[in-house]
Specification:
Blueprint (H helix, E strand, L loop, with lengths): L3 H11 L9 E5 L8 E10 L9 E11 L11 E10 L2 H5 L3 H15 L4 E13 L11 E12 L8 H14 L17 E2 L1
Parallel strand pairs: 1-7
Antiparallel strand pairs: 1-2, 2-3, 3-4, 4-6, 5-6
Helix pairs in contact: 3-4
Pfam family, one: DUF3000
């Protein structure tokens, strides 16, 4: 796949991707200076999707970059650049292995979907917030943030799907949603913002 026409086809295919019901996708403007071609969307998971109050429990952004001829550090023509943030229990946030586990969750999520890639890199950050003054009635918050990028191996445009699915699986796992067993379809259609 070596042309902007093929990248346009990849974008059209990405627009057909349907995650599990709890994830809401929204196309957003992509960064313009990182590569010749780019496409981006956000994903949100709220308690409302689980039948609770509409509190966001996880969110993220997925960007696919395409540079004909690639860039030196990419080891390929494409680069997935992702970010995800999710609320975690305070005990989990205090686990000294949380960053290492978070990175392994990403790699395992990609491997489980059969995504093939080169040059993975990223950071895992734990965030703890305490509220004071007029905000003190709020509960203290703990979150995990995973920033990652990798070069997907794409020989045909459909090869992008395992990468997006792996990233969505990571979000649902870190958000604490139970896995959907293989072969089981969701009852309602995924929600997509336009």
């Amino acid at each position: 796949m070596k042309s902007s026409f093929a990248f346009d086809q990849l974008i059209e295919l990405l627009r057909t991707f349907t995650p599990r019901d709890e994830i809401i996708l929204e196309e957003v403007p992509a960064p313009q200076k990182l590569a010749t071609h780019s496409f981006a969307f956000t994903a949100d998971i709220s308690n409302g999707a689980l039948g609770d109050a509409e509190d966001e429990i996880a969110s993220g952004r997925f960007v696919i970059l395409y540079e004909p001829g690639g860039q030196d550090t990419w080891e390929g023509d494409f680069r997935c650049v992702t970010f995800m943030r999710a609320a975690v229990e305070g005990e989990m946030q205090e686990d000294p292995l949380l960053p290492e586990n978070g990175w392994n969750w990403l790699l395992d999520s990609l491997a489980d979907t059969g995504a093939e890639f080169n040059a993975p890199s990223g950071t895992v950050t734990r965030v703890s917030s305490a509220s004071f003054g007029k905000l003190s009635p709020r509960n203290n918050n703990s979150e995990i943030e995973i920033r990652a990028s990798w070069s997907p191996l794409i020989s045909k445009i459909e090869d992008i799907f395992p990468h997006v699915q792996g990233w969505c699986n990571l979000m649902t796992e870190v958000a604490g949603l139970p896995p959907v067993p293989e072969g089981i379809a969701s009852i309602s259609a995924a929600r997509r913002r336009v």
